Amino acid sequence: MKYTFLVFIFISAISCQKEKKEPDYLLEKEKFVEVLTDFQMAEGIVRLGYNRTKDSLTYNDSVYFAVFRKYGISEAIFDSNFTYYSNKPEEFEEIFENVITNLSTKSAEIREKKTEEPYDPKK
User: Fold this and answer.
1) Quick check: is 35 in a domain?
2) Could you say which of 11, 98, 115, 116 would form a disulfide bridge with 33 (CB–CB 3.0 to 4.6 Å)?
3) Directed axis angle between helix 89-116 and helix 29-48, to 10°?
4) Are 53 and 59 in contact (CB under 8 A)?
5) Within-domain flag for 1
6) pLDDT tens digits along 33-61
7) 45 close to 63: Cβ distance less than 8 angstroms
8) Which domain holds residue 71?
9) Are 94 and 54 in contact (CB under 8 A)?
10) 32: buried, middle or exposed (CB in 10 Å: 19+, 13-18, 0-12)?
11) Over the stretch 77-89, which tens digit does the pLDDT of each residue have?
12) Do the Cβ atoms of 36 and 102 come closer than 8 Å?
């Protein structure tokens, strides 16, 4: 009986210590939202074909890597965060809703700027 009680306490203590620790490479959600927002804009640049040249694959890579440089992360960290959050669908959905909101806000700002002042190539 005495040993059963001690075993029970030991198992309880061990089970309480098993907190799920987040990986070291994990970005804060807000930062990951910013990275994904810029990454989606980079994807738009590539898909629309701006500055197409003979070395378009190199150009495409440089557009994506510019996002990584901006935030001081590597492609591996980006991929690891993407995989981590994609395994948590509710969090991932929240992140992408924030990305869509950011993109919509940026789009509205650009439209507003276009209507405020006409384009002047001499500027």
Assistant:
1) yes
2) 98
3) 60
4) yes
5) no
6) 999 999 999 888 878 876 566 555 556 67
7) yes
8) 25-111
9) no
10) buried
11) 999 999 999 999 9
12) no
For the record, the structure tokens of 87 come out as 């395994």
| Global confidence as pTM | 0.69
Domain count for the chain:
1
Q: How far is CA 85 from CA 8, 29, 63, 81, in A?
A: 36, 9, 23, 6
- Token digits of residue 46: 């590539």
Contact yes or no for 106/114 (Cβ under 8 A): no
CB 34 within 8 A of CB 98: no
In angstroms, rounded to a whole number, what is the distance separating the alpha carbons of residues 120 and 109?
Answer: 18
| Alpha-carbon span 45 to 66, nearest angstrom | 12
- Give the Cα separation of 37 and 104 in Å (integer): 10
Burial of 102 (0-12, 13-18, 19+ CB in 10 A): middle
The DSSP line for 11-47 is HHHHHHT---PPPTTPPPHHHHHHHHHHHHHHHHHHH
Residue given tokens 């990986």 in the structure block: 23
